[in-house]
Amino acid sequence: MGIPHTFQSSGQTAMAGRETADGAEAPTPASLVGHEERDAGADSAQMRHAALVRVTHWLITVSFLALLVTGVEILISHPRFYWGETGNVNTHPLFTLHIPASRGSVPTGYGYVLPDQNGWSRYLHFESAWVAVLTGLVYLAFGFFQGHFRRNLLPISSDVSLKRLATAVARHLRFRRPSEEEAWSYNLVQRLAYLLVIFVLFPLVIWTGLAMSPGFTSVFPAAVKVLGGRQSARTLHFFVSGFLVLFLFVHVFMVFLAGFRSRVGAMITGRPGKRGERI
Amino acid sequence: MNTMSRRRLLTGGLATVAGASGLAMAAKLAARYGLIPPDSGVLYGAGETLTYAAQRLLTRHSLAREFAASQISQYPFANGNHRLGEEFQRLEKGGFAEWRLTVDGMAARPAAFSVAQLHSFPWHSQITEIACEEGWSYIAEWKGVPLAHILDLVEPLPQVRYVVYRSFQRGWWDSIDMADALHPQTIVAYSMNGGELPVKFGGPLRLRVPRQLGYKSVKYITRLTLTDNLKGFGKGLGSAGPEAGYAWYAGI
After folding, report:
1. Contact between B214 and B241 (Cβ < 8 Å)
2. Using the beta-carbon criterion (under 8 Å), do A87 and B137 form an inter-chain contact?
3. ipTM (interface predicted TM)
């Protein structure tokens, strides 16, 4: 069974191997690697996450948090949602968030108006969006060309059955702490969740965001038409962002469950810590 | 280890030099093709420059979406503070007969137009959506004189790059680049939904820039200034917007 050959090498070769660990010298799926072999390799050069995955992960983390904070800030200037092309305080909303607003023109029922912070929020929202999109493109290129998606995210064919899925979901719902083997490979639910975030939610949130841009839609009017109009795009942007936030919470919760120090350490250094290091 | 670090140093150094000169070249090209916004130096200027450059490359000749008459909003929302002071009330009582739109700056034939004169010029009407940066929007039919026509009349000098516009409201001023100034949908609007442009929607004159968000469509405009450089206006950031923390370019 394949002990990745970085195990066998040492010195300079192993050092060089680290940089492309997720590429040519990807770790063998956990289920195929024996316990001793992995323990033997724990202090060696094997990488759980490739350098590019780690760097893009944290860039996306920072830009996503900035997008979230500024997005909420922009939202409170008009916490009402509409469907269709247009909507304003003179028309019926689809729904309203019962929070105070940063504009006196919005009837919120609160006797005060929050300070207007839309200026820097919009600046930072779009700057963070650029960071997220450019980082995402680099990650996508890496994922496709270096086989990251195929190897680490595409469900393993033997895992693809309703029974397997049900078992995996049930394990998650019981908050079962993952076994140590799972530190080396993503399980079925993880793979599906990550694929959903990367290939569905992120593209959707970018699309619905751009559909609100009068400049962008002057070139690509279909981008907003197929969504049902500008206000529909804004409402969808809100919901897709909500799903991304839900993913963020579950993701962070699962990291805690699996061992915060070990999993976060793996995403920083590339190597998961030992079980004893778990907090 | 030695050869390793030397190689790393070399490739790293080369990459840095290549990256830096590439960036410098890109910045030079961007400036030459007018892809750097006047507020590129603010805290979030990098993102702003990317947005403006990307949209300018895409949108130079694109038209803002237009709608059917049936889609005109029955309940448009007039945003803002409409206490415009005694002088405005006086002008309003006089039917804005004394209102002037002054056009000056880098023009061979600077001029001042009355509202009646503007009514006699060729007009353009459009049913477009005005969207506020806060999120709300409405659709209306706007009618007015294409800004390009007014510029034609005053004969801009060839080096003109921006049109600065000022509002009757103190402190409100803005500017657009020539891509928007000469755009067929950019109009000095005097009519809305078939009637006079109501005061609360910007009457007697409002600059309508439909490829950008509502705050670029400044109400109560009194003066247009043609310039090749925005440094001399306010803090040099292109408009009152960036001075209050808002982006100069509002195509997104």
Report:
1. no
2. yes
3. 0.91
